[in-house]
Design goal:
Layout: H1 9-20, H2 22-54, H3 60-108, H4 119-128, H5 138-164, H6 169-196, H7 198-212, H8 217-223, H9 226-248, H10 255-277, H11 282-294, H12 302-312, H13 314-322, H14 324-327, E1 346-356, E2 359-370, E3 374-379, H15 385-392, E4 400-405, E5 408-409, H16 415-420, E6 422-425, H17 436-441, H18 455-461, H19 490-506, E7 511-515, H20 523-537, E8 541-545, H21 549-552, E9 557-562, E10 565-570, H22 572-578, H23 581-598
Parallel strand pairs: 3-8, 3-9, 6-7, 7-8
Antiparallel strand pairs: 1-2, 1-4, 4-5, 9-10
Helix pairs in contact: 1-2, 1-12, 2-3, 2-5, 2-11, 3-5, 3-13, 4-13, 5-11, 5-12, 6-9, 6-10, 6-12, 7-9, 10-11, 18-19, 22-23
Bound molecules: adenosine-5'-triphosphate.
Length: 599
Amino acid sequence: MSGARPANGVLEVVRVLPRMSPWLSAALAFVLVAQAVLTSGFMLASAAVVGDVAQGAADRDTAMLHLGVLIAVFVLRLGLQPVSGFLSGELARRLEARLGQTTLEGALRPVGIGHLSDPAVADRIQLAQGLASGHPPGQAVNSLARLVSSRLAGLAAAILLATVAWWLPLPLAAAWIALSRWRLREVKKAVDAEAESMPALRHAAYARDLAIGDAAAKEIRVFGFQDWAHERFTRAWLGGMDALDGSARLLSRTAGPVLLALAHLAVFAYLALAAADGRLDAEAVTVALQATAGMGALGWIGDVQWILTRAGATVPHALAIGRLDVEAEHRGVGATASDERLPAREIRFEDVRFGYPDRPVLQGLDLAVPAGSSLAIVGMNGAGKSTLIKLLARLYEPDTGRVTVDGTDLRTIDPHTWRRQLAIVFQDFVRYELPLRDNVGFGRVGADHSDAAFDRPAKLSGLGDFLPRLEAGWDTPLSRRFEGGTDLSGGQWQRVALARALFAVEHGAKVLVLDEPTANLDVRAEAEIYRHFLEITRGLTTILVSHRFATVRLADRICVLGDGRVLEYGSHEELMELGGRYAHLFTLQSEPFREARHV
Ligand SMILES: Nc1ncnc2c1ncn2[C@@H]1O[C@H](COP(=O)(O)OP(=O)(O)OP(=O)(O)O)[C@@H](O)[C@H]1O
């Protein structure tokens, strides 16, 4: 993804609003124009009233008419304010909701997950929400409405002033517009700096979340790095903010007022001389003075333009995230082949090479997993076991080589169809702070989530042991941060994750993948899983990643992964006979137990 430099956000807002809500946008535009017309009407009517007063109210009826028009225009203008406020508020809400959806859709759309660890994407997601500037996209609408209304009023004032003398608006317009452009350039610099300082601000946000969140609360206190978190947050935040403040300094503070003073001096001098000569009457002078003041609306409108520029800058980021499917590389999206019964014969990795941006992992991996059998994968930390699972789930795609299912390249199989065949317990499975029912039900969204539907997964995963102790049963939130919620132990969470995968199996998944499924289980719970292993895996193609050889030996076949490829492959007995790496590791792990038994 390209860098996080923003496009012209205000133009994007102007482009998006009419497409999103044409009627509301048109209504707002109409009200804004009406407000501008009424503003100039107010100037004209008040000038007419002043003229009547200057003439000593010679014509009483005309004077009353002028006064009536003045009051009517004033009341109408006042009445339109809440209408434009309502319309812009409604558009702001819709824009924010739309861009929020766009960001979510973009982040979720890619088949793989590589984009989520791309720092440029992470920056954009933050920028799209206006978190650093404190100005979310909705604020752009309100500011835009106020800016357009001011500009129209300024334009109307300029036209009125030109009726007094054609050249009068020119010096004022030149001075106000120049000042406005200088200031705008400064604010745009600040917006650019904000995009550049986003990595620092994300570091700050990470340190803050560590300090105030649940996840690291224990370690921060036990290891005592509260000061580190505090210091890290402050340093990163101030670093990010420095960049913003530094570039937000407005250089035009001196030249602007001088130019404005000169322009106003010229206009006022002319008005004074013309009035003294009798070329202008009181009414014309009043119109001219009001119009002169009104032309200020063409200049820099502090808060409004500041907020508009910064809130508007979020929009291109949200739209860019929304286009992620185009920008990211997703070969095979929209693939045609789909089959709910895969795999019938085998899953095969063929000469697969794959690496993350900073390191190669698999270097020519060949591996076959016959359908309906179980395969255990062992290997050192970092050998690439979990990576292999991610390739199988198509969360990443091989750099070269291919993964096939019954001979069909995974890239030509519809990813959603394929993933419905998979039931995976990831090593870093998610502990959803939601009721137990959702935690297990996520295994197949849309399926029957009644208590009875969970019976079998609960029994096989060992959930049944602690389910009766949960106050609200399946509806108990699994987080103490929610009313009536509870927290689970590591092993209990692992059973929940297993139940989730088994629920997917209940609903048709044919490939069960267990990445370290018993790492947190106590001996009894682990033994229980082993007891059920055959029942759990019956009829399924099972892939098991584990460092526990007692688990591994349950599999029909075992493969030892190392140096980015398969080093050994066979049944437990075959590999023990081979006397290679597996036999060595197995012996190493069983030794302490053997010794213990001798004690
Ligand atoms: N998202 C990622 N981005 C970059 N590198 C990664 C990513 N995930 C894993 N790696 C790296 O890829 C290598 C293989 O990681 P993987 O998690 O597949 O190993 P593993 O065999 O499952 O290890 P373990 O036994 O410790 O679970 C490691 O060097 C790891 O640091």
